[in-house]
């Protein structure tokens, strides 16, 4: 009974390697000679399991940090570039938490945004108007009737549906 279980385990492991890897090869040198794919972002290994098997798998560049964009470079090294959490809103404090990603904490909106010209005040919100007055940005919401809210997509008041 014990030999049957061991045989089934070996058969299962062998089937896994035959599906996910090439081989078997008699020597490590034979395996290494064919274990190539010209992709620097793949990890190539010759693994022993009653013969050598070539296993090619993607290079794992995940640094488990939600504050980076992870990728493999053309040179086959990992790149973990910090992300930008700035939402261009002076009324939020923006930071990145390693496990949660970008966090935007609302803060007192009496933040003074300095400017030299009106274009300096643009922060990507279409439902507000802005202008540079005496070296600081002045923001005002687009005024809409309560039943017709402003659309961030167009920066205009949304018309009520007509039936």
Automatic annotation (TrEMBL):
<keyword id="KW-0732">Signal</keyword>
<dbReference type="InterPro" id="IPR052846">
    <property type="entry name" value="ECM-enzyme_regulator"/>
</dbReference>
<protein>
    <recommendedName>
        <fullName>Dickkopf N-terminal cysteine-rich domain-containing protein</fullName>
    </recommendedName>
</protein>
<dbReference type="GO" id="GO:0031012">
    <property type="term" value="C:extracellular matrix"/>
</dbReference>
<feature type="signal peptide">
    <location>
        <begin position="1"/>
        <end position="21"/>
    </location>
</feature>
<dbReference type="GO" id="GO:0005576">
    <property type="term" value="C:extracellular region"/>
</dbReference>
<dbReference type="InterPro" id="IPR001673">
    <property type="entry name" value="S_mold_repeat"/>
</dbReference>
<dbReference type="Pfam" id="PF00526">
    <property type="entry name" value="Dicty_CTDC"/>
</dbReference>
<dbReference type="GO" id="GO:0099120">
    <property type="term" value="P:socially cooperative development"/>
</dbReference>
């Amino acid at each position: 009974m014990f030999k049957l279980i061991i045989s089934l385990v070996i058969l299962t492991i062998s089937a896994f390697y035959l599906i996910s890897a090439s081989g078997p090869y008699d020597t490590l040198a034979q395996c290494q000679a064919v274990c190539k794919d010209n992709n620097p972002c793949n990890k190539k290994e010759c693994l022993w399991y009653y013969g050598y098997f070539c296993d090619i798998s993607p290079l794992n560049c995940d640094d488990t940090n939600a504050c980076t964009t992870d990728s493999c470079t053309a040179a086959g090294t990992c790149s973990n570039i910090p992300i930008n959490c700035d939402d261009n809103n002076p009324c939020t404090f923006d930071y990145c938490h390693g496990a949660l990603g970008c966090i935007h904490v609302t803060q007192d909106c009496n933040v003074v945004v300095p400017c030299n010209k009106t274009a300096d005040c643009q922060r990507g919100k279409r439902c507000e108007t802005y202008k540079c007055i005496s070296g600081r940005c002045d923001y005002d919401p687009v005024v809409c009737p309560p039943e017709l809210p402003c659309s961030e997509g167009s920066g205009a008041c949304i018309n009520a549906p007509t039936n």
